[in-house]
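Translate structure to sequence.
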């Protein structure tokens, strides 16, 4: 595609394939400002994108997307437009199952954009990022180029993967198709390995490795989650023992669904599993997501206190995303506070997020809890956390979740990176 459309942007430019359509994302720009639209299209052409379409209003964009199902890869959307605005457009596209990526463009300032990002977080749209207007070519490129990695891997236009059913889960359980991958949490001051978080995957015979967001919710709603939690606890404990035999001594964190915690007797069951496996409660950290904890059932509170009394580690996961984070801190004797990744990556230059990150870490310290930042993706994230005095870090910068047998190799690589990342002892 070239910029040879109507430069005023008044008429929609069709989305055409370039020489190698597969290698080029089809980008659709929507903005009510004709000058801005033409300028951004030229900018994208200038940095090598060959499939750029424009739309002067949300209605035009909607018509183009509806007319080319599955063919728009990235929508660059102005938020403030007369008539149907950007937020309304995205709501309609979400409802209609638009499967491309979305980049928000706005002149409304970070707080507005962040609120919209949160709104979109609850939709199925894939948000690639948000930029202030006018956006630079470099900034756009960084977000656009994420489209291939961020979008679910499927051919353009193909239907989304079908949802699983309870029967699928029962087969998976009967056939032992669950597997745990492990992601390290490391000490920010020394770089030492503090623990490994166990994250469940489903080795599906046809679909390959299925991620937990596609089956944990289903397992909770059909009552299978307890069996799966028990399996995860046994498997994690067995893995600790295997690592020990191989000379690696570490604790493991297991995610526990609120549904399991609400069942009376959960604490006793976990303790029994630990005894059966000849391990200690101190070997385990149980990560609980506080957004689900907010129901505050007496049973969950009792289970949590009993687990703590038995010396299990208790982690409040995704801290900052729920509705009663502070009440949870008041009522539950957590040992670890895990700041949600939404407050971690890119916090240094974010005037809203950074004070929340610093506040959470300061609060953990004063409450005698270990602070953990998840979603540490860059060296800059890592350095900021060191400056703030956070205890532990976890995220792609350190390691992606990996199979248990890759942990030794990761440790070797990490020990080489470590000296440059921590102050000399
Ligand atoms: P979570 O407990 O908050 O786990 C962290 C998620 O963030 C993991 O996704 C992990 O792969 C991802 N992650 C780690 N580092 C980074 C990073 O630097 N950047 C980004 N963008 N993401 C990062 P995963 O494995 O898909 O797990 C998703 C959620 O599924 C978990 O969120 C947890 O709530 C749930 N889950 C996983 N395993 C279990 C389990 O055994 N039982 C229960 N009940 N829930 C589980
Ligand atoms: Ca977790
Ligand atoms: Ca988390």
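Result:
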């Amino acid at each position: 595609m070239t910029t040879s459309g109507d430069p005023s942007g008044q008429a929609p430019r069709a989305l055409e394939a370039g020489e190698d359509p597969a290698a080029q994302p089809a980008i659709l720009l929507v903005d009510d400002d004709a000058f801005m639209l033409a300028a951004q299209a030229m900018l994208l052409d200038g940095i090598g994108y060959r499939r750029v379409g424009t739309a002067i209003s949300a209605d035009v964009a909607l018509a183009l997307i509806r007319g080319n199902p599955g063919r728009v890869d990235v929508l660059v959307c102005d938020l403030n437009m007369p008539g149907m605005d950007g937020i309304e457009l995205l709501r309609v596209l979400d409802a209609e199952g638009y499967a491309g990526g979305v980049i928000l463009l706005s002149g409304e300032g970070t707080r507005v954009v962040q609120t919209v990002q949160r709104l979109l977080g609850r939709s199925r749209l894939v948000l690639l990022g948000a930029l202030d207007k006018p956006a630079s070519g470099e900034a756009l490129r960084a977000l656009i180029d994420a489209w291939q990695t961020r979008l679910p891997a499927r051919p353009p236009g193909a239907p989304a993967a079908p949802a699983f059913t309870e029967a699928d889960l029962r087969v998976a359980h009967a056939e032992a198709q669950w597997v745990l991958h492990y992601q390290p949490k490391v000490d920010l001051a020394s770089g030492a390995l503090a623990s490994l978080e166990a994250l469940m995957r489903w080795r599906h015979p046809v679909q390959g490795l299925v991620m937990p967001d596609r089956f944990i919710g289903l397992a909770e709603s059909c009552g299978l989650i307890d069996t799966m939690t028990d399996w995860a606890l046994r498997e994690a404990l067995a893995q600790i023992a295997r690592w020990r035999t191989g000379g690696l001594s570490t604790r493991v964190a297991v995610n526990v669904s609120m549904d399991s915690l609400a069942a009376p007797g959960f604490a006793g069951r976990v303790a029994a599993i630990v005894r059966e496996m000849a391990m200690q409660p101190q070997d385990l950290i149980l990560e609980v997501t506080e957004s689900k904890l907010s129901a505050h059932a007496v049973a969950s509170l009792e289970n949590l206190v009993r687990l703590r009394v038995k010396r299990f580690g208790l982690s409040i996961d995704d801290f900052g995303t729920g509705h009663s984070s502070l009440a949870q801190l008041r009522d539950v004797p957590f040992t670890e506070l895990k700041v949600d990744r939404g407050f971690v990556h890119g916090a240094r230059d974010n005037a809203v997020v950074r004070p929340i990150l610093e506040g959470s870490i300061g609060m953990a310290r004063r409450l005698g809890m270990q602070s953990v930042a998840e979603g540490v993706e860059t060296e800059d994230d890592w350095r900021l956390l060191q400056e703030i005095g956070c205890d532990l870090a976890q995220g792609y910068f350190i390691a992606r979740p990996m199979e248990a047998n890759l942990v030794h190799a990761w440790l070797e690589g990490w020990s080489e990176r470590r000296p440059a990342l921590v102050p000399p002892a």
